[in-house]
Amino acid sequence: MQRSTAPRSALWLALAATTLAGCTTVGPNFHAPAAPTAAGYTRQALPAQTASAPGTAGGTQQFAAAAVAPDWWTEFHSKPLDALIDRALQNNPSLAAAQASLRQAQQTYAAQAGSTLYPTVDAKLGASRNQSNAAGLGQSSNASNTYNLYNASVAVGYNLDLFGGNRRALEALAAQVDYQRYQLDAARLALAGNIATAAFTQAQLRSQLAATESILAAQQTQLEIARKRFALGAAARSDVLTLQTQVEQTRASLPPLRNRLEQTDHLLAALLGEAPGSAAIPQFDLAGFTLPARLPVVVPSELVRQRPDVQASTALLHAATAQYGVAVSKLYPQINLSASLGTQALTMGALFGPGSAVWSLAGQLAQPLFNAGLKAGANAAEASLQAAGANYQQTVITALRNVADALRALDNDAQTLQAQSAADASAQESLALVQQQYQLGAASYLQLLVAEQQAQQTRISLIAAQAQRLADSAALYQAMGGGAVTAPAATAASAAR
Questions:
Q1: Strand order in the sheet with 357-366
Q2: Is residue 191 a contact partner of residue 92, using CB atoms and an 8 Å limit?
Q3: Could you give the CA distance from residue 452 to residue 218 in angstroms, rounded to a whole number?
Q4: Is residue 101 helix, strand or coil?
Q5: What is the spatial distance between Cα 353 and Cα 238, in angstroms, rounded to a whole number?
Q6: Coil, helix or strand at residue 484
């Protein structure tokens, strides 16, 4: 009776350690930082809508208190853009790396949780051939001193996490899972924003390149006329040289435009995860995009819950808080329990027979008496926590600045587009008037060419303003966090309990 009770008590003691481990958790508990109290993003109140300009129904964009859609790029109503972003979300290597980092963090958390929350149980089976010194044991030299020893056992071990160091470490790993998840959200947001901006840039460059080529053609015609007039003595050589200088200056502006256009296509290919030489990149046109009529703007307290970079910084702050708890726990006693139950016999047949049972129960308590490095380690962890708090504050300030910049850019660039639209309308009206005068013989061909150049120059500025307005809208979507952030699967707060 005594033989069977002791091993059973040893196993129960090891298993009961899991219940005793939750008594104390040293170090500060993590609390999410308070949300910003600011009511707005800029010193001056935002207008209800932007200045009126072409590109939207009614010509204006209105600011609305609404959440950002996860697929916010569809608000530009461009199927080629939607298809391009979908391709990138499937194939981009940086996104794949972020997904792999998330899986790594999840598995690291699972591995640590398995060895921290539960006892370790090992089964052992062994056999040995032994020889003893018969004379040393007081036996006759004729006695057999060679024998076999067989044993089988189950060992249970557990670290009694009395002061919560292991649980704090697990809490830090859970926060790292949250961090990697928000990093993945941030990578998706940046990828979609970069593709949208590159698509707008490509459309702008293509339109500006066509307009510049039209200007060059008009200038070349004007130069040829000047040369003929010079040959006839009706024009000075300085007029010819002036026009020739204009032609070459315009011609020199074409290669940089082509270079930027080709580099933009290369960028789009890289964002797709494809080689620039083999990627099929669509040709975008500004007329193929529609400015969103309603732009979502949430209050700053809600922004910090939508921005993945702010949430990632919060997760790092959580991890630093937990790591500080780990460092503090090392200053307290560490208790380890172990127990084993098995059988031992000289023959295999008797291994599980009566009288072969063996058991052991051990406990160890270690209390640091002098270790100068432990206190320094706790101080270092506290400094790391303070740094994480400062980094969080800077991330929030940067997020508020991003939104403020985007909002002001939308309003100011809308006014620029309004003025450029008016200038373009005047230039087109002037060109139409000169064309009528030319047909009636009241204007020369040179006057017509000059009017066409002025109209194309004005159109180039209008194209830049239109593309900038599209880019501003995309920047606001990004600054607002690009939609709801995925809720973390590993709840670090639960690991602290």
A1: 120-131, 146-160, 334-345, 357-366
A2: yes
A3: 7
A4: helix
A5: 119
A6: coil
Between 8 and 438, whose confidence is greater?
438
Q: What is the CA radius of gyration of the chain?
A: 38
The contacts of residue 478 (CB under 8 Å, 6+ apart) are: 189, 190, 193, 402, 406
pLDDT at 473 over 90: yes
Helices 445-479, 165-231: crossing angle, 10 deg rounding: 180
Contacts of 325 (CB under 8 A, 6+ apart): 25, 26, 27, 28, 164, 165, 168, 171
Model confidence at 281: pLDDT above 90:
yes
Nearest to 303 by CA among 447, 153, 407, 184: 407
Architecture of domain 24-118+164-332+374-496: Up-down Bundle (1.20)
CA distance 269 to 318: 38
Q: What is the signed CA dihedral for 320, 325, 326, 331, rounded to 10 degrees?
A: 140
DSSP state letter for 271: H
Residue with structure tokens 């460092």?
327
- Asked if 407 contacts 42 with a C-beta cutoff of 8 angstroms, the reply is yes
Specify the pLDDT at position 210: 93
170-204 burial, b at 16+ Cβ within 10 Å, e below that, comes to bbbbbbbbbbbbbbbbbbbbbbbbbbbbbbbbbbb
How far is the first Cα of the chain from the last one, in angstroms, to the nearest whole number?
40
Structure tokens at 485: 């952030």
User: Crossing angle of helices 93-117/79-91, nearest 10°?
Assistant: 40
pLDDT tens column, 128-161 = 777 776 665 555 555 567 777 778 778 777 777 7
Alpha-carbon span 284 to 282, nearest angstrom: 6
Phi first, then psi: what are they for 196, rounded to 5°?
Answer: -60, -45
- Burial (CB < 10 A; 0-12, 13-18, 19+), residue 360, is middle
* Percentage of residues of the chain with pLDDT beyond 90: 39
Helix (H, G, I), strand (E, B) or coil at 31: coil
Cα distance between residue 469 and residue 52, in whole Å: 12
> What's the whole-number average pLDDT of the chain?
83
Average pLDDT (345-359) is 70
Q: Is the pLDDT of residue 465 over 80?
A: yes
Cβ proximity of 339 and 19 under 8 Å = no
Greatest extent of the chain over all pairs of C-alpha atoms, in Å: 141
For the chain, give every domain's residue range.
24-118+164-332+374-496
